[in-house]
Amino acid sequence: MAMKQHLVDAFNAQIQAEFQSAYVYLGMAAWFTENNLPGFAQWMRVQWEEETQHAMKLYDFLHNRGENVTLRPLTAPGGSYTSALDVFEHVHSHEQSITASINALYELALTEKDLPSQIVLQWFINEQVEEEALVIEIIERLKLVGSDGPSIYLLDRQMATRTPGPEGA
Ligand code: OFO
Q: How far is the CA of 150 from the centre of ligand 1 (A)?
């Protein structure tokens, strides 16, 4: 069954949002590298990869439904942060806005009674819960260590151990 055009448009907007997230996180990875925190940089590179996979999951979904993907322009990510905590606070507010857009897209799929869209979006709804929880945990750890150099060094080493999860999760 063909998708309603405004639902296709909303999926294309979400593809753009996921690629934009990837771009924002790549900018943060660069900031961490330039600020001598290679473990945090590695974590952000994994996040960049995961966001790219999120975008591609929606891209493949539209094609599988026989619809067209329309790629939209990205904007330059903000690049100046004051600390690792500041970066992760930006990540948190960014993810909250992504959660809102996923939820709105799901509501549209419900209104349109588009069952395949609802199912693919349920994965994203779960993913947003996990992403927000993970980011809050990192923020709490960063608050705990404050500006203590040796603790930040240890945390940076832990962050370096992150590897990409299956299917961008
Ligand atoms: Fe795609 O989850 Fe973050 O933005």
A: 31
